[in-house]
């Protein structure tokens, strides 16, 4: 972060002193704590930090004016690009994301112990399969190398992708669960009006993943589910 001012806050004659103070300030906060650079003798930090922060400007300078004006406070500094690349999985192709979500969901569902016929016949109506929870590492071990390679180029990788798809998954303490919407707390009445309005406006604007893909369908009835059970419900 830099602050750019329109006018000098110190006399021009103090430029060299302020330059030195700025250099000391930066060096005191750099990863490899090095002494203040003295460019006039071509100070080289290679011996102090493995050559990672070799100071530029070891050649003799033409005159003292150039020493002041041309001082490099932080040699090797590279500013980031003007347009920052989005790498939070949000720009991944939709079909790729859908494939990963379906693979992980099936993995969790198939890991769940099957309910016996006697359980079903005994009148237990709660047969909605929430699947088992698996660690992120276990999930990653079951994904093919091409998927993992693509996710590694994104910040947060697999975990970020699963958290982005919060309709389907819940990631807690490094473990992945299929979200059971019956356990979700109803919207708080104490929420600010703006948030309540946004929540109401988003109701039924996307298809319910469980209604389409889950073998038992959605755990909620249509009127209680915030997502659309079929295209006819879409708003």
Q: CATH architecture of the domain at 88-110 and 131-179, please?
A: Orthogonal Bundle
Question: How would you write the strand order of the largest sheet?
Answer: 1-3-2
Helix and strand sequence: HHHHHEHHHEEHH
Overall 3D form? elongated
CATH domain topology of the domain at 88-110 and 131-179? Arc Repressor Mutant, subunit A
End-to-end gap: 43 Å
- Helix percentage: 25-40%
**Largest sheet, if any?**
3 strands, antiparallel
Low-confidence stretches: 33-70, 116-124
The radius of gyration computed from the alpha-carbon positions, rounded to a whole number of angstroms, is 29 Å
Overall mean pLDDT stands at 76
Structural class: mainly alpha
Total number of beta strands: 3
**Helix segment tally:** 10
Can you describe this structure?
The protein has 235 residues and is mostly helical. 35% of the residues lie in helices and 4% in strands. The protein has helices at 15-28, 46-49, 64-69, 94-110, 117-121, 136-141, 145-152, 157-164, 193-201, 209-213, and strands at 134-135, 169-172, 175-178. The protein has a three-stranded antiparallel β-sheet with strand order 1-3-2.
Highlighted features:
mainly alpha, Arc Repressor Mutant, subunit A, 235 residues, 10 helices, 3-stranded antiparallel β-sheet, 35% helix
Briefly characterize the structure.
By secondary structure, the chain is mainly alpha-helical.
């Amino acid at each position: 972060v830099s602050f750019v001012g329109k006018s000098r806050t110190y006399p021009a004659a103090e430029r060299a002193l302020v330059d030195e103070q700025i250099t000391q300030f930066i060096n005191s906060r750099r990863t490899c704590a090095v002494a203040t650079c003295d460019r006039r003798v071509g100070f080289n930090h290679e011996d102090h930090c493995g050559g990672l922060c070799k100071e530029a400007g070891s050649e003799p300078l033409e005159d003292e004016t150039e020493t002041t004006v041309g001082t490099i406070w932080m040699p090797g500094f590279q500013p980031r690009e003007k347009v920052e690349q989005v790498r939070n999985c949000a720009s991944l192709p939709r079909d790729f994301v859908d494939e990963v979500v379906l693979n992980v969901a099936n993995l969790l569902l198939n890991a769940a112990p099957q309910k016996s016929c006697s359980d079903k016949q005994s009148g237990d109506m709660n047969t909605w399969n929430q699947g088992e929870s698996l660690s992120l590492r276990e999930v990653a071990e079951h994904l093919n190398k091409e998927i993992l390679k693509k996710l590694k180029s994104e910040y947060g990788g697999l975990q970020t992708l699963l958290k982005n798809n919060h309709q389907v998954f819940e990631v807690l303490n490094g473990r992945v669960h299929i979200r059971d919407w019956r356990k979700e707390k109803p919207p708080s009445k104490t929420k600010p009006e703006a948030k309540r309005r946004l929540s109401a406006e988003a109701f039924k604007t996307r298809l319910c993943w469980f209604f389409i893909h889950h073998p038992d369908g959605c755990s909620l009835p249509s009127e209680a589910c915030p997502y659309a059970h079929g295209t006819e419900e879409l708003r």
